[in-house]
Amino acid sequence: MTVFVFLASLGGVLVGLSRQLNGRLSISTTPLIASFWNHAVGFAVLTCLGLFIGGLLPARAAEAPWYAYLGGPIGVIFVAACSWAIARIGAVNSALLIIGGQMVTGVAFDYIRAVPASFWANASGIVLIVGGMMVSRGRRKVDRSQ
Known about the structure:
This protein is mostly helical and 146 residues long. The chain is 81% helix and 0% strand. The longest helix has 27 residues, at 2-28.
């Protein structure tokens, strides 16, 4: 279990580092160029890893439905949007926005798929997320006025 906690923490640190680098790169260039370099480096690293470990091309990859390949274009848009947002609202606020969006979307997907869940737990979670984001925005405005 400790290994998985370590891997999850390492993944979070690497995602945060990637967002910071992309945000800094988008300030120097543009969000689309930052997204390009993010995907170029990721493609090179994952290709080398796939060649080294094996399984670069899964046996039945051609049989996957067309929408299975939408992750690439959606990822380009997401990385470019994150690079643009980090340069304008900062890393912490953009991370809060991403986490809040993921949580609310997850709850919405659960309701669409009729997954049994507690309405009050989900509703209070969404209220806490949105409330925390509002408190964060309010403090920033107050700090700048002094």
